[in-house]
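2 proteins. here.
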Amino acid sequence: MIEDPPDFTGLRERLAELRDPTGLLEEIFAGAPVGLQIYAPDGRCVLVNPAHTALFGGVPPPEYNVFKDNILVERGVADLVRRAFAGERIKIPAIWYDIRDLHDIEATKVSGGRRVAVAAQLVPLRDSKNVVAHVLFVFHDQTAEMLAREQAEAAAAAAETRAAQASFLADASRVLSSSLDFDVTLAQVARLATPALADFCIVDLVNEDGSFRRVAAAHASPERQAILDELRRQFPAHPGSPQPAARVIASGQPELLPEVDARVLLEHTQNEEHRQLMQRLDVRSHLAVPLQLGDRTLGAISLGFVGTRRYSLADVALVEALASRAAVAIDNAHLYRAAEAARADAEAASLAKDEFLAMLGHELRNPLAPMVTALELTRARDGASRERTIIERQVDHLRRLVDDLLDVARITRGALELDRRALDLIEAVTDGVELARPIVDQRRHRLVVAVPPGLIVFGDRVRLAQVVANLVTNAARYSESGGDIWISATRVDREISLRVRDTGAGISAELLPRVFETFTRGSRAIDRAAGGLGIGLAIVKSLTTLHGGRAIARSEGQGQGSELEIVLPALDVSAPARQARTAAEPISAAPRLGLVLIVDDNVDAAELLGDVLAVHGFEVVTTYDPYEALALAKARRPSIALVDLGLPGMDGYALAAELRAEPTLADLVLVAVTGYGQRSDRERTTAAGFREHLVKPIKIDQLLPVLETLLTR
């Protein structure tokens, strides 16, 4: 828009009154703090002031013409000059100029550097006839302001980039930590990287045998995903191949290809078909970074752009940060898988051990059962004898060894239950000493018990007696004949300490930390003579722990004796004790005897058990075959059937099902007799309809009350 020319009449009149108006105007032009430049209508520069020279570092050459300056023509400045000559005042916002490119400057030395940001005003200058005779350029140096603005914008952009990168890495870390299946998480990371970091992302891992495995290949474009999948099938990276992934895995260093052209494709593809697929993928820039953990290279991440975006050195650090997180996640997953495999192996070994112990207990109890029954029968008929007493003692010792083996299996599986109630510790100590008395007497040890009454714990009397018996047995076993054993107990604050001290072989410093571990035995000379399986003290520690206590071993060394201590929480007798399990109903004093069917393929066990029950007034029918047992039961209709579970042809569970299905045997009481005594075994027999579960070898004084109770219900 052409403005009306300003009225300078008054100004001219005042200038005419001055003594030297021309000199004044010259001083104003020369001393102006902004760059001034005057152009003639033909485009020539006719005058510049010192500020202009300082700003641009020189003056235009004589032949310079503003209308022929290509830079000003391209930027539209030449057209603006024409408009100014037509009478329009023009404002030109700040524009960056590189002094080296300006044609209107002769000199090359620029005070402010080679780049300047200049804003300008174009002012038409009219002559006395009101015709635009010249155009005045007024230049304002905006370099400092523009630099500050650019720096602020760059800082903001850098901060935004860092925030985006941090957010991306945080998202990647969450994905990587979301699962220990790194095939899944790496595929998710590859998808996360597109299109944030790349148009496509590929992840290759190194197998244990050194070969490569591509676990992820994601493309932002569904159409080009098919090309990636084809490359994955036909041209996977392998050791020695020219692909960037193989190269960085081999070198352990990132590889940046800012521009991917035909030459680069030729160098990094396996053959012509491979190159054609890569050309269809249209990759234009590529970056591959190794997945490293310490000095190990686990694989590589490969990223590519297919459009105008390009990778630079600034991108390497971000992708390396991603690769570092991925490598840690992969290593964690490897460690977890190894740990899981080890745990599975350990669990399988533990299960095999438990099954072996259960089977061993069953197989050992089978021959023990008739031996115990025969001993009790001969004692009932012929009375006691020295030889019979020795046999009974050894059979009882063997039975306790079997029980110890099964206790270890139950404790390991967490299947051991405690019947806890308020208990005076002296009761458990008395029972335990009684259990250990045979070996103490056999070795002629002197046993001193100093346990006062009133030390109350919340415990299982039977199991704590077992703890005491094992401690005393251990002391007796590892002391020469005629040794001394002391049992003492005290209360300290809220705990009760029970100590068993001996004058025996002592414990070496090497063995002391492991003395309570399963199957741990010292190298003491009397070990083999002492006997034992090395599980007694392990049971002590486990039972003590189940009671909320701890076990401690002390010894000054071999030949110095030892002291084993258990520490249990004391029970405040002023506080109400937790309710114990309801005791069994008393046995009827006058049981009604009936017919008992015994089914056991162990002929000796079946016959001897039948003889003992007959002696005690029961009518007995015995069979060794389950099918015969079914026929006998239908014919004789017994009151109780003692059924061995490990029968040939038809096991005890199947026989029980057949017996229960017979309407005429609705009142028959089934009792399981077996060498298996773990909780799962008892649960299974209960579910099968057995009213009782008896574990071999069966003592008559345990069996008779059970039968009497069942018959009187």
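next one coming up
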Amino acid sequence: MSNKVSFRFHSAKSPFGVSSSVKSSKKLVIQPLKIKPTLPAQFESESWEKLQKAVRAIWNSERIDQSREELYQTVEAICIHRKGAQLYEKLGAELDALIHKSVVGVDSTRFLESVKDLWTQHCRKMLNVRNIFNYLDRSYVMRTPAASTIWEVGLNLLRSHLAQLRLNGRLIEDLVLLIRSERNGEERQLDLMYSCIRMIVALNLYQSDFEPQFLEETASYYEAEGQEYIQKTDVAGFLLHVEQRLVQENERIQNYLEQRSRKPLITNVESHLLAPHAESLLDRGLHTLMGQKRLEDLRRIYSLYLRIGRLSVLLQKFTDDIKEEGTKLLNVDSPGDLVARLLEYNDTLNDILQHAFESNKDFAFKLKTAWEHFLNLRETKPAELMAKFLDEKMRSQKGLSEKDVEVVLDKVMQIFRHLADKDVFEAFYKLGLSKRLLLRKSASYDLERSMIARLKGECGSAYTNKLEGMFKDIHLSDDFMAKYNDYLEKQSWGRHIETKVQVLTTGFWPTHPPQNVVLPPVLQAEADKFVAFYMKTFQGRRLAWQHGQGHCVVLANFEAGSKRLEMSQFQAMVCLCFNKQPELTFQEVQAETQIEEEELKRTLQSLTLGKQKILLKQKAGSKEITEDMGFRFNDAYTNPKTRIHINTIQLRETVAEANKTNEAVRRDRLHIIDAAVVRIMKTRNTYAHNLLVPDVVSQLKFPVTMNQVKARIESLIEREYMARDEEQPNVYNYLA
């Protein structure tokens, strides 16, 4: 095989279109060297001597004689001549000796500071060494799998020498103690901690050696701290301390610890500082915090308990506290006091739910169930008092704008949703609405309609059908009275009394016992005119007068002049009796008017007591009206006003009257239960008892017991709407 290398050159066309021809090709022959080149005998030793001297100068922080470029080229030359392995081995041995010397020189009296300096100097020196031997890293080390980079060699040697001198264990212990002192409030040494932790991470001691010991110390520290703080601080202070500790530990992660330690470290704090005291903290302070509406502290409780997975404990304590506090609030019989306190409590709970508990759905549901629990403990009383509270608000706004009253109505509706006895509320609300409409005492018809719209949206149109019917009656009555007045103007009856009659549908309005009184001739004549016109307009209808709901304006002539007296119809009837003679006895007034005895006594009291004494009685010092008492017209009555309102003695609603309304609701409920049973049986025709009772309960919108349903079933059996099956007593058959 020849060692010659030959090249041939052929002719080619000129790029400018002029051809050049060469008759024969030329050959260039390269001959090998006759003598193979060899390295100088002292090249390797002299090169290493030069490099060793540079490494030692770096380690001793001395000046290097050669330039870094020259040293780099020396390393390159050694590697090119396949001496990289020998150079790698010699460098490792040299670094081993130098690092050992550095580790031995650590000052035990200022250990952490000395280790920090060791690490700082080690990194600086190894960077310089690596720069000089960079070609060795990129050539020999990359081609040798078992070989570590020069930087890794330095780390491995440093770790090895620290372990040999048992300094790594002391380093970790001192770091843990330094963190403890930092937790105790001593001065933080962030730069020192950062450098030492970076060293531990680089030496692969963080996860295996430092972190387990650090987390164990953390658990012990916070467990002891929790036991100490729970004894000497209140709930709010303890929770604030926990929150501050969590912030501090997060800062510790940001400042010098590894991010991988965040989750185990924070979990350690939560599980040892807070979790063991979760229930006792709520027992001690949740009620106070909720009662004082300390939203920031409650927000802190929620966020911390969410972190430790103990929201279920907070949820239960929250529910129990609402039930307990709500039960206390119900021990009031005044409508204003009870509902005002309930509204205030509802506002507090809503603020807590929204701003402290982040409108959590579970807490919202428990809040609803807690309201339903305590609000219905007193059966029908809360519903009754809420209706009376609204009656007071609708009568007088007391300086509030309609917008303010609308806000109150919205708040009342929030509580109304939790009422089980909505039919009781409807009965009492209808009673109050009827008085407001008939006596023109309502502050605003727009507010009245707005409230009915709210009730309709909450309970449906069937619930407000009668309430809407009452408004419709008032509107129709106004229209009818306009027609009646036009009719009177066309008649030739001469002078007549201005009359306004309100015709009410019996099924819409609360029922009042009829009072058969004898009207004065002047009033009876007007009543007869209206009845005649009404019957002519609406044939087949029947009118029943409710004289107890009427009002009159009476012109009274006194010595000081004439006055217009605004009074009830019964007061007017009594006053008109004294047109015939100035003095009358109780029996004479009753005989002429036929007003029921107790009602007449209240009427006479209103005319003889107080500031507006239209009548004088014989026994001036007595407040009671007796049957043998005499009365006379007070001709000397004076008042600077020309139009005077005479108050009536309002009969305060007694327990018996409230019971009467509740009894009416109870009777209505019996009919509703009967209708539900019949409706189900008519659909099923044959149905088992244990299926019928739950179906009936599910269809009712008011609370009812199983025994009440059973009693109505027995009543229907007695009335032959249904019958027991002869073969199966627990099965009912519908009787068509």
